[in-house]
Design a protein that fits this description.
Blueprint (H helix, E strand, L loop, with lengths): L9 H10 L6 H9 L20 E4 L2 E3 L2 H10 L13 E6 L5 H10 L3 E7 L2 H14 L2 H4 L3 E5 L12 E6 L9 H5 L1 E12 L5 E8 L5 E9 L7 H5 L3
Parallel strand pairs: 3-4, 3-6, 4-5, 6-7
Antiparallel strand pairs: 1-2, 7-8, 8-9
Length: 236
């Protein structure tokens, strides 16, 4: 695998992610080709849309580097595949931010499922909705995706339980209990977690019948903190 790269088109970005081994699943690859990253960054970053790096989107939030999104989709490829499920897939995206990863998951479950994005900064709720309307409007029009304002640490009980919960910010004290409660038995959670050492790791958890999570550490990462609205606003 290589590290950061700079591409000029969405297709060349995805091609590089494939070449680097970040993503292999054909459905996930097709989803990323449908969700053009340039529609999900700030105007000042448009010319760098296809660089493999994170960008700030305001209010202390970021859109992650493409390799992180690709790797996370690959982790969740079976859980976001309606053909492998008997019931509609329910997904929660905590810290939906730009709406990019929310849209990618929406494309994957669009045959029979839905995604709720949750943000506690109203301006980011509007930003995410507007980006999806611009880049992938059918996901909003068909009610496959909705983005709401709220504290993502508390989840969103109305659509629970979830097959998948994705968290786009780093939890300092472990995975929030409300998110674990709202996960289906057999459901998956992907979340960055900060350890006592200060190091962050991307964790992948599977909820067992006893309600506990079996957790795997995927890799070291660096994400903005999963915190209160007040503290987040102090970051910018």
């Amino acid at each position: 695998m290589t590290s950061f790269f700079r591409k000029q088109t969405n297709d060349s970005l995805i091609d590089q992610l494939i070449y680097d081994g970040r993503i292999e699943n054909e459905r996930c690859i097709a989803a990323l080709r449908q969700v053009d990253r340039k529609n999900y960054v700030l105007k000042r970053n448009k010319s760098s849309s296809y660089y493999d790096q994170p960008f700030g989107i305001g209010y202390g939030a970021t859109i992650s580097a493409p390799h992180m999104h690709a790797m996370t989709l690959e982790l969740l490829k079976d859980d976001l595949n309606p053909d492998l499920k008997d019931d509609p897939i329910s997904v929660l995206d905590v810290g939906s931010g730009s709406g990019y990863f929310t849209a990618a998951m929406g494309v994957l479950v669009s045959k029979n499922g839905s995604v709720v994005g949750i943000e506690h900064i109203p301006e980011l709720v509007e930003f995410g909705i507007n980006n999806i309307k611009k880049g992938n409007p059918e996901l909003i029009e068909k009610a496959i995706i909705k983005i709401i304002e709220g504290d993502g640490r508390l989840g969103y009980q109305e659509n629970a339980p979830y097959d998948v919960i994705h968290v786009g910010a780093c939890a300092k004290n472990g995975i929030p209990e409300k998110l674990i409660e709202q996960l289906k038995i057999g459901g998956k959670v992907v979340i960055p977690v900060e350890k006592s050492s200060g190091q962050q790791y991307l964790e992948y958890g599977i909820k067992k019948k006893n309600g506990k999570l079996i957790i795997s550490q995927i890799c070291g990462v660096r994400f903005v903190p999963l915190t209160s609205k007040k503290k987040q606003l102090q970051l910018f």
